[in-house]
Structures are given as C-alpha cells and as structure tokens.
Task: inverse folding
C-alpha cells in the first residue's frame, strides 16, 4: 500500500459535523508523506468551498488534492469543443465549468450535452422536464452524469443524490448516461493517474459499499469500508467484499501500520 483516496461525506464528516478523529487521521497520513487525494461525488459546491469546509474541520489541504465529477466533466467538455452544454448543477458548482459554452437557462433545445449534478431542493417537475426535453429534442444530445450515487446521509436523514434523476432521464429519453464520478472506472483511473502509482497500491476509503468499494475494486484498487456515514450492517451481507472494514477513519493509522507490518513479515 502506497496511496490513499479519501471519500469525504460519511468518512471525514457527516454533512456539517466532523467525524471524530478524522482530522488526526488525515494529519497522520500527511505527516508520513503518504500520497493521497480527496475524491468525492459532491457536486453541490466547488473545490474552493470543499477546501474551506475541510479546513473548518481541521483538515488542511489545497485544491490540487481535490477531484470531483465537476472537474473531470469540465475538463472533458472543454477538450471536445463540439457544442453547448445545459448545466443542471448547484449554482455553487457552476464556477467549475468556466470556459464551457453553456445553453441559456430557459432554453429547451440546442445543447450537445445535458449535465446532471446534485441540485437538492432545486429539483422540481419543471426543471427535470426541461432536462428531458433538451435530451429528447436531438438524437445526438448526450446525457452526462456527475456521479451515480443513489443517496447520502444529510443532517435531516437520507437524501436522494444524482443517480435516481439520471435513471428517470435515461428511461424517458432512451439514452445511457456517460458517468463522471464514482463508481465509474474512468473517474478512478483519473485519480490513479494523479497519484502516479499502480492502481493495486492504492486504497479507496469510503462509506458506500457500491460507489466506493465496488467501484474501486473494479478499477483495480483496494476498497476499504468505514462503519460511518451511510454504512448499514446489511452492506456486509451482499456479494461485494471489502478488503477491510474499519469502525471509523480514526482507525486508519493503526490498521495501516499493522497491515504493512504483516506484509513485510509475510
């Protein structure tokens, strides 16, 4: 093991509450010079806001250590230069798409790409139907999913994330989404490329058995599950088998050192 990918919500914090011991665990990783990134399907805020939020919880980092679906998608769209995009993302994340040609807010035709992120309470029938109309108006229009997380743990309980809205649009428009974010293999590949390590030497630490653990394992990484955030005991009853299960991220230093000792001693 040589590198770490940290999920954020459910691992380092729950919504607006830090998870006990998270800052200390990340500090240990940084003090030991372990290559790491913070990879998240969060699309409700930009990188600067994520860095600021982590700082409030005692985790010091910079934007170069953050990888989000917005960043990955914006880089991909900017490189293609073959049409406008209709953005359905939180206003706080729109800055990540600076330089990407975008369709006017109320237009219902004319986009080459329909980009769907987490809009929370901003979703309503009119907004979802506008996304459908744009998609259906042109057979060449592509659906872009900023992650495929089904739900997440918020302060008021579980909340729908991006995947249910993508499923509705795929079904209605008869199109398959291009996914940027976990659990898509290209997203993990982008993280691996940034760490410049072989995939099998990197561990992904998350609270989702499907999005974090299965996605990482499918991409050749090790998947570590924590019993915080959206974790449920039933997660361990299925076919997906984590490489390790930690009660909390605070247990990472002790687990890491024990694992390395075991590997060295055969």
Result:
């Amino acid at each position: 093991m040589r590198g770490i990918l940290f999920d954020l919500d459910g691992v380092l914090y729950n919504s607006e509450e830090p998870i006990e011991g998270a800052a200390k665990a990340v500090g240990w990783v940084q003090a030991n010079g372990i290559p790491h990134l913070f990879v998240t399907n969060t699309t409700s805020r930009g990188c600067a806001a994520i860095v600021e939020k982590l700082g409030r919880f005692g985790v010091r980092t910079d934007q170069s250590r953050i990888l989000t679906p917005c960043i990955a998608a914006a880089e991909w769209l900017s490189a293609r230069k073959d049409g406008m995009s209709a953005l359905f993302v939180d206003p706080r994340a729109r800055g990540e798409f600076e330089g990407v040609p975008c369709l006017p807010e109320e237009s219902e035709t004319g986009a080459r790409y329909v980009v769907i992120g987490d809009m929370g309470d901003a979703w309503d029938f009119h907004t979802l139907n506008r996304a459908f109309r744009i998609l259906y108006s042109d057979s060449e229009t592509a659906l872009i999913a900023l992650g495929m997380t089904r739900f997440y743990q918020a302060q008021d309980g579980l909340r729908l994330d991006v995947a249910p809205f993508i499923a509705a649009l795929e079904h209605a428009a008869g199109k398959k989404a291009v996914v940027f974010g976990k659990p898509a293999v290209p997203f993990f590949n982008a993280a691996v490329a940034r760490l410049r390590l072989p995939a099998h030497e990197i561990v992904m630490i998350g609270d989702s058995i499907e999005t974090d653990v299965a996605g990482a394992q499918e991409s050749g990484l090790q998947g570590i599950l924590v019993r915080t955030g959206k974790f449920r005991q039933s997660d361990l009853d299925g076919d997906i088998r984590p490489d390790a299960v930690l009660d909390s991220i605070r247990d990472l230093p002790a687990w890491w050192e024990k694992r390395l000792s075991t590997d060295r001693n055969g």
